[in-house]
């Protein structure tokens, strides 16, 4: 597949067209941002680590029957994906209280959430990714109701698969964000799943092993991502065919 012009450079990834109108290339960069792009740094190896991490999770989800955009790794920092018409909404699931939920509702960090919660946020950095709901999304045309119903159903299926996968590595999947889009009318998981967009705690010590290390200036960010990857069976040195 031939790489063509850059379509979009986001905060962490760049998106390229290809000679196939139905396929894109995602390039994972070392840029790391938090607080809607207000804190930005380069973290060595992050692009490579997140590309591998995402490929591993997407393949696990695909094997479990989830429709995903991921097709194959292309290089250490690139992968080939189906070109989706993205819905500009972020689907957030929480299994344990942390982050925004604690700030917003005054809930104590670390309490188990039963059943897990599901929230929608509008992807809009200038507005600070405000929380929305299905009614607002439908009225303002951000997403169709039936597509959000399907995204929510897939998100909970993904939760079951990933909670087990991480627990096998003695890790708690605290919360995470997913983005969906449409591929020839089918709601399909897009974007990435990596420690940049989720919270993962050591199940024994509750040590934070995700982007909160960057948000809170704890250091050892990429080392923690690599440790999480090793625990769930990722070989970061594997060659790409
Ligand atoms: P944020 O960090 O808030 O998610 P961003 O736009 O800065 O926003 P990046 O990850 O840097 O995020 O950029 C990748 C962009 O590519 C995102 O806008 C994402 O929605 C989009 N994208 C991801 N997968 C696909 C796909 N399969 N087809 C089309 N667009 C995609
Ligand atoms: P949340 O606690 O709402 O936000 P914050 O990161 O400000 O504490 O986020 C819940 C989870 O979803 C967390 O793992 C980060 C992820 N997330 C993103 O990666 N990007 C986003 O735009 C949002 C809203 C959440």
Automatic annotation (TrEMBL):
GO terms for molecular function: ATP binding; phosphoribosylaminoimidazolesuccinocarboxamide synthase activity. Pathway: Purine metabolism; IMP biosynthesis via de novo pathway; 5-amino-1-(5-phospho-D-ribosyl)imidazole-4-carboxamide from 5-amino-1-(5-phospho-D-ribosyl)imidazole-4-carboxylate: step 1/2. Its EC number is 6.3.2.6. GO terms for biological process: 'de novo' IMP biosynthetic process; cobalamin biosynthetic process. It comes from the Bacteria. It catalyses: 5-amino-1-(5-phospho-D-ribosyl)imidazole-4-carboxylate + L-aspartate + ATP = (2S)-2-[5-amino-1-(5-phospho-beta-D-ribosyl)imidazole-4-carboxamido]succinate + ADP + phosphate + 2 H(+). GO terms for cellular component: cytosol. Keywords: ATP-binding, Ligase, Nucleotide-binding, Purine biosynthesis. Transmembrane segments: none annotated. InterPro entries: SAICAR_synt/ADE2_N, SAICAR_synt_PurC, SAICAR_synth, SAICAR_synthetase, SAICAR_synthetase_CS. It is an enzyme of class 6 (ligase). This is Phosphoribosylaminoimidazole-succinocarboxamide synthase.
């Amino acid at each position: 597949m031939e790489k063509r012009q850059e379509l979009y450079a986001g905060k962490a990834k760049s998106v390229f067209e290809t000679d196939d109108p139905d396929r894109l290339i995602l390039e994972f960069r070392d840029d790391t941002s938090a607080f809607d792009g207000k804190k930005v740094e380069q973290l060595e190896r992050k692009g490579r680590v997140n590309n591998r991490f995402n490929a591993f999770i997407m393949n696990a989800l695909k094997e479990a029957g989830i429709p995903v955009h991921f097709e194959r790794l292309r290089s250490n920092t690139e992968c080939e994906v189906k070109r989706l018409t993205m819905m500009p909404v972020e689907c957030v699931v929480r299994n344990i209280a942390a982050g925004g939920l604690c700030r917003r509702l005054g809930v104590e960090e670390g309490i188990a959430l039963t059943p897990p919660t599901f929230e929608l946020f509008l992807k809009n950095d200038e507005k600070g990714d405000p929380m929305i709901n299905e009614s607002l999304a439908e009225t303002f045309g951000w997403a169709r109701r039936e597509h959000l119903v399907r995204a929510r159903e897939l998100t909970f299926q993904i939760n079951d698969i990933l909670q087990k996968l991480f627990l096998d590595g003695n890790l708690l999947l605290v919360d995470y964000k997913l983005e969906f889009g449409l591929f020839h009318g089918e709601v399909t998981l897009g974007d990435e799943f990596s420690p940049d967009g989720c919270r993962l705690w050591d199940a024994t010590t509750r040590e934070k092993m995700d982007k909160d290390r960057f948000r809170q200036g704890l250091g050892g960010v990429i080392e923690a991502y690599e440790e999480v990857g090793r625990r769930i069976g990722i070989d970061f040195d594997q060659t790409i065919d």
